[in-house]
C-alpha cells in the first residue's frame, strides 16, 4: 500500500499510537508515551485504582511533581505547608503517598528538579518529538513545541492512563496557523500567541490540533515555541505543535531523560523525518503577519479580548462584552496604557522560563518598581531559579523592589495563597484573565514579561519599547 | 455512573457567554481529594457576594429554579482549565444536562465520563431557550432528541460511544481494560520505545 503523502505531522504522530482503530461506534484506543501528574487533578484517580485493585501499568512512563498548591516561600519541612492551608497540605501529602505506593518518580520537595509540570518535562528532556504526552492539566499543549502530540485530560482519563497507558479518543481536526515574516524588536512569542487568539477567538480552535508554521515560528527558540504552544488551549484547541528541527534537537541534547549513545542518534534520525508533508491537508488554516505585530495586552476577561498596548480598547454592543469591560474597569476608546497597575506577576508555565526572566530583568536593570506596585517573580522550576541566580537575575529583581520566590504556579491561579486583592489590576505573564482567576475580584491583564516589567516600572500598563 | 436514558426538567438560564471552569468552580476549592460535596462551590463567586450572601439577581438563586436539572448557558461553555471538578460540581448541585451552542473539548469529555449530558443546539433553538427560561424540556438520551414545550423536536449531536456508555451507565475504564492484550502487543511490536 502506498504511503499517503498529504499527511500532517499531527496525523503521523496519531497514526503511530493507534492501538485499536476508531470506528463509527467506538473511539480509538490511543497509546500514551508520557504521563505527567501533579497533586491537584490526580487524587481521585489514584483512589479509583485503589478501589479496583489496579496497578499503574507503566510507572516508568509516568512523572510526577507538585506545583499548583505549593507555597512559593521556601519549604524545608511539612510544617511550612501551613501557609497554604490544611486541605492543600493534605493533597500534597497524598501525592507523596500515591507516588510511593504506585512506584512513580516524584520530583517533590527537596528535589532540585521540582517545578511547574510543563516546565520540568522539557527541562528533563522527557518531552520529545513524536511522543504522545498527556497530563491532567489543560496547558499540556506546551510540550507540543517539541513536535509531540500533547494535550490535557480530566481526572477520569488520568485514571485510564494510569491503569492502561491508553486513552479513548476521537481524532481531532487540524488547523494550520502560518506566521510569516519577522517579529519587530520588542515583540515576543507571548505577543504572537495573544494576537493569534485575538484573531481566531477563544473557541476558534475547538476540536482542532493547531500546527504553528512559517518562518517566524522557525526563527523562535524552544522557550518561545513553548510559550506559543502553551496557550493553544486559550484558543480552544486540543493541542498545538511545531515540527521539530535543529533548534529542537540542540535543546534536547544532553538532557537527563533523552536516549543515550547510539539510541540518541537513532532517535535524532527519526525526529528529523517528523514533519507535515508538503501537500499536507489541514481542515482549516489562518495566516498572521509577524511584521505587523506589536506588544499585546488583554483588556477583558478572556484571552481573546486582546489589543495592541497602544491601541484603543474596542467596544461591542454585547452584554457579555460590556460586563467584561465593567469588571475590568476599562473604558472603550482609550488604550490600556492609561490604566494604573497594582500588581505585576512574572512566572507560570507560559512565561516562567529563563529567557522570560531575562526579558523582564532586561527592563528592570537599573530601574525601580514604581511606588505602590507589588511585583512577584516566580521561576517556573527550581532549575530555572538556580540558572537565574547564577546569572544574577535575582539581584536585579530584588534591587528593583520585586519579590523573588521559589518555583510553582503561584499567582497564575492563586491556589497557594499568592493572590491579587479584590479590585486590583494585575499585569500578569500567565495565560488566563478569567474573572477571579488570580483572586476574587482580581482584574488581570495578560502580557509578555517585557510588558509586565515595563508596567511595574511605570506603574501603569506600558509598551516595553518605550523603556529600552 | 448512573444510567441516563430520559430527562424531564424545567430549565434555568445563565445568559453569559464563554463561562470558564474557573467560574464554574474557583481554584481555591480544588484542594479536595474526593469528588463529593462540590455542588456547594458551584458558581461560587457568581452565586454569592464577598460576605457569603446570595446574589438575588443570579438565576440559580431564584427559588423557582432550585430543582432544575437542565442548565442553559451562553455560547462556548466550559472553556479553560481541565478540572473535572467542574462537571462534578454541576452534578453534585443537581444538574444532569447543560445546553449551549458549543462546549470546550475537555469539559465535554469530562462531562460525558461522569454522566452529565452536554447538549449542543443550533443558534435558533439556543436563542429561543435563552429567551424562555423555566420552560419544561424532555430529553430522550437514547434517541439524542430534545423536545420543546411546543412539541418541536430538536436532534443534537453526540458521539455514539459516549451515548452508549451514558445510557447504559457504563464506565469506560472497564472497556479499555478489555483491550489489555492489544495494548501489550502494541508495546512489544512498535518500531520505537518511549
Ligand atoms: S502555571 Fe498556571 S496554567 Fe500553568 S500549570 Fe500552573 S496553574 Fe496551570
Descriptive notes:
The complex is a heterodimer of chains A (468) and B (194). Chain A is an alpha/beta fold. Chain A is built from 16 helices and 19 strands. The mean pLDDT of chain A is 95. Chain B has a 7-stranded mixed beta sheet with strand order 4-3-2-1-5-6-7. The radius of gyration of chain B is 18 Å and the shape is globular. In chain B, a hairpin with a 5-residue loop joins strand 6 and strand 7 (153-155). At the A-B interface, helix 2, helix 3, helix 5, helix 10 and helix 11 of A face helix 4, helix 6, helix 7 and helix 8 of B. The complex binds iron/sulfur cluster.
The SSE string of chain B, one letter per element, is EHHEHEHEHEEEHHH
Roughly how many Å apart are the termini of chain B?
34 Å
Largest sheet of chain A: 5 strands, parallel
Q: Whole-number radius of gyration of chain B?
A: 18 Å
Summary tags:
heterodimer, A: 468 residues, alpha/beta, 5-stranded parallel beta sheet, 16 helices, B: 194 residues, globular
Amino acid at each position: 500500500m502506498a504511503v499517503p503523502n498529504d499527511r500532517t505531522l499531527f496525523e503521523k504522530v496519531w497514526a503511530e499510537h493507534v492501538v485499536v482503530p476508531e470506528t463509527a461506534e467506538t473511539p480509538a484506543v490511543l497509546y500514551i508515551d508520557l504521563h505527567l501528574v501533579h497533586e491537584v487533578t490526580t487524587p481521585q484517580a489514584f483512589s479509583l485504582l485503589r478501589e479496583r485493585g489496579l496497578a499503574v501499568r507503566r510507572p516508568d512512563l509516568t512523572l510526577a511533581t507538585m506545583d499548583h498548591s505549593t507555597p512559593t516561600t521556601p519549604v524545608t519541612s511539612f510544617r511550612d505547608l501551613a501557609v497554604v492551608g490544611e486541605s492543600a497540605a493534605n493533597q500534597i501529602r497524598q501525592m507523596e503517598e500515591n507516588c510511593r505506593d504506585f512506584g512513580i518518580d516524584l520530583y517533590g520537595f527537596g528535589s532540585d528538579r521540582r517545578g511547574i509540570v510543563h516546565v520540568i518535562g522539557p527541562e528533563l528532556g522527557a518531552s520529545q518529538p513524536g511522543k504522545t504526552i498527556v497530563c491532567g492539566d489543560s496547558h499540556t499543549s506546551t510540550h507540543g513545541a517539541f513536535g509531540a502530540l500533547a494535550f490535557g485530560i480530566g481526572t477520569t482519563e488520568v485514571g485510564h492512563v494510569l491503569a492502561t497507558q491508553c486513552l479513548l479518543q476521537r481524532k481531532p481536526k487540524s488547523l494550520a496557523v502560518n506566521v510569516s515574516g519577522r517579529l519587530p524588536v520588542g515583540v515576543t512569542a507571548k505577543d504572537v500567541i495573544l494576537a493569534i487568539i485575538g484573531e481566531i477567538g477563544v473557541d476558534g480552535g475547538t476540536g482542532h490540533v493547531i500546527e504553528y508554521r512559517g518562518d517566524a515560528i522557525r526563527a523562535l527558540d524552544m522557550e518561545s515555541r513553548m510559550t506559543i504552544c502553551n496557550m493553544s488551549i486559550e484558543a480552544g484547541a486540543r493541542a498545538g505543535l511545531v515540527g521539530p528541527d535543529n533548534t529542537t534537537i540542540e535543546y534536547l541534547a544532553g538532557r537527563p531523560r533523552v536516549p543515550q549513545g547510539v539510541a540518541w542518534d537513532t532517535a535524532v534520525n527519526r525526529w528529523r523525518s517528523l514533519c507535515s508533508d508538503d501537500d499536507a491537508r489541514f481542515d482549516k488554516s489562518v495566516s498572521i503577519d509577524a511584521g505587523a505585530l506589536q506588544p499585546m495586552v488583554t483588556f477583558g476577561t478572556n484571552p481573546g479580548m486582546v489589543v495592541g498596548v497602544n491601541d484603543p480598547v474596542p467596544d461591542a454592543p454585547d452584554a457579555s462584552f460590556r460586563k467584561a469591560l465593567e469588571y475590568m474597569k476599562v473604558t472603550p476608546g482609550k488604550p490600556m496604557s492609561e490604566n494604573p497597575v497594582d500588581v505585576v506577576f512574572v512566572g507560570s508555565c507560559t512565561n516562567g522560563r529563563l529567557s522570560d526572566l531575562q526579558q523582564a530583568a532586561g527592563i528592570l536593570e537599573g530601574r525601580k518598581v514604581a511606588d505602590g506596585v507589588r511585583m512577584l517573580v516566580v521561576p517556573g522550576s527550581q532549575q530555572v531559579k538556580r540558572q537565574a541566580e547564577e546569572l544574577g537575575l535575582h539581584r536585579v529583581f530584588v534591587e528593583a523592589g520585586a519579590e523573588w520566590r521559589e518555583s510553582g504556579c503561584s499567582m497564575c491561579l492563586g491556589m497557594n495563597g499568592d493572590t491579587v486583592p479584590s479590585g486590583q489590576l494585575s499585569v500578569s505573564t500567565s495565560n488566563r484573565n478569567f474573572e477571579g482567576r488570580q483572586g476574587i475580584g482580581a482584574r488581570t491583564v495578560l502580557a509578555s514579561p517585557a510588558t509586565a516589567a515595563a508596567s511595574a516600572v511605570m506603574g501603569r500598563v506600558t509598551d516595553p519599547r518605550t523603556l529600552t | 455512573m448512573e444510567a441516563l436514558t430520559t430527562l424531564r426538567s424545567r430549565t434555568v438560564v445563565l445568559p453569559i457567554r464563554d463561562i470558564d471552569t474557573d467560574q464554574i468552580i474557583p481554584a481555591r476549592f480544588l484542594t479536595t481529594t474526593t469528588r463529593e460535596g462540590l455542588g456547594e462551590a458551584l458558581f461560587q463567586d457568581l452565586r454569592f457576594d464577598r460576605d457569603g450572601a446570595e446574589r438575588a439577581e443570579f438565576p440559580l438563586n431564584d427559588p423557582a429554579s432550585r430543582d432544575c436539572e437542565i442548565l442553559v448557558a451562553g455560547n462556548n461553555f466550559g472553556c479553560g482549565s481541565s478540572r473535572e471538578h467542574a462537571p462534578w460540581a454541576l452534578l453534585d448541585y443537581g444538574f444532569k444536562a447543560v445546553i449551549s451552542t458549543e462546549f470546550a473539548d475537555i469539559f465535554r469529555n469530562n462531562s460525558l465520563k461522569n454522566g452529565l449530558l452536554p447538549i449542543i443546539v443550533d443558534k435558533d433553538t439556543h436563542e429561543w431557550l435563552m429567551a424562555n427560561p423555566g420552560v419544561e424540556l424532555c430529553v430522550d438520551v437514547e434517541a439524542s432528541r430534545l423536545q420543546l414545550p411546543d412539541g418541536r423536536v430538536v436532534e443534537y449531536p453526540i458521539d455514539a460511544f459516549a451515548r452508549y456508555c451514558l445510557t447504559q451507565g457504563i464506565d469506560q475504564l472497564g472497556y479499555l481494560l478489555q483491550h489489555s492484550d492489544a495494548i501489550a502487543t502494541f508495546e512489544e511490536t512498535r518500531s520505537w520505545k518511549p
